[in-house]
Amino acid sequence: MQYPFSPLPRVLSAIEATMSPARLARYMGTTKGDKHHALRLYVWNARLCEEFYIPLQFSEVSLRNSIHRRLTELYGTAWFDQPRFTGIIPDRHKDEIAKVVADERQKRGRSFMPDHVVAGMSFGFWQNLLGSRLEFVLWRGGIQAAFPHLPNGFGRNEVYRRLERLRKFRNAVMHHYAIFDKGPTDEYRNIRTLLEWMCPDTLWLMSELSNPAAVLQRRPRL
User: Fold this and answer.
1) C-alpha dist (Å) from residue 55 to 8, 51, 67, 208
2) Average pLDDT per consecutive 10 residues, the chain (222 residues; last block may be shorter)
3) Is residue 117 part of a domain?
4) What is the spatial distance between Cα 87 and Cα 89, in angstroms, rounded to a whole number?
5) Do 165 and 194 reside in the same domain of the chain?
6) How far is CA 132 from CA 83, 113, 159, in A?
7) What integer pLDDT is reported at residue 3 of this predicted model?
């Protein structure tokens, strides 16, 4: 979305100082030194990031819930408390689980449920459960069922690679980086692929609610 005005010089200088000259400079390379246009690009990039909020949320929530269901089948409802599970994961993830469980139990009291732990774990935790170190124990032990529509010929490595790509893009969006020139169309395809492997119906809903291509077409012009 392009705002239909240009701030006065004093206002533009104040905005630049507040947002930081380095941040605005990121957009100056394609504006021929026009700070007004750089600010328009910055706002447009923010709108583009906004358009990715639903795709990123749907893909992350689908990932953690899909894996949670598999872990529940393998280790029981409180899988995060089971030594059979915690004994096979890296120490950093043991520590993360312990902290999340303690925090959630203190916060929720008698209303504490496993879903609170699921929501509290980081994206990296879920992704790393699909890492090569745990392939024989978890992936081949049943976690691959979190991706029931994974095509024949595709395995853990391809899923992990796509999740790593998603993680980096997710972090760029959440940290308000410029994404307009970092292949957002390809990143959207990657999100769609992962969702399709987990749940085509959720992919359908996500597709109905988001349209990054439409935002890309509204790029401000000099």
Assistant:
1) 37, 8, 18, 11
2) 70 90 88 86 95 98 98 96 95 96 96 97 97 95 96 97 98 96 97 98 98 96 80
3) yes
4) 6
5) yes
6) 21, 30, 11
7) 59
206 in the same domain as 123 = yes
Q: Look at residues 205, 73, 44 and name the one whose alpha carbon lies nearest to residue 142.
A: 73
What are the pLDDT digits (tens) for 28-60?
888 888 888 899 999 999 999 999 999 999 999
Q: Are residues 81 and 184 in the same domain?
A: yes
**Domain tally, the chain:** 2
**Whether residues 161 and 197 fall in one domain:** yes
What is the per-residue pLDDT for 7?
Answer: 83
> Which domain covers residue 61, as residue numbers?
52-210
pLDDT tens string 86-95: 999 999 999 9
Q: Are residues 126 and 32 in the same domain?
A: no
In 3D space, the residue among 170, 182, 164 whose CA is nearest the CA of residue 53 turns out to be: 170
Cα-based distances in Å from 77 to 67, 81, 85, 89: 12, 9, 12, 18
Candidates 58, 89, 95; CA nearest to 75 is 89
Q: Does residue 70 sit in the same domain as residue 148? A: yes
Q: Cα dihedral sign for 115, 134, 172, 60?
A: negative
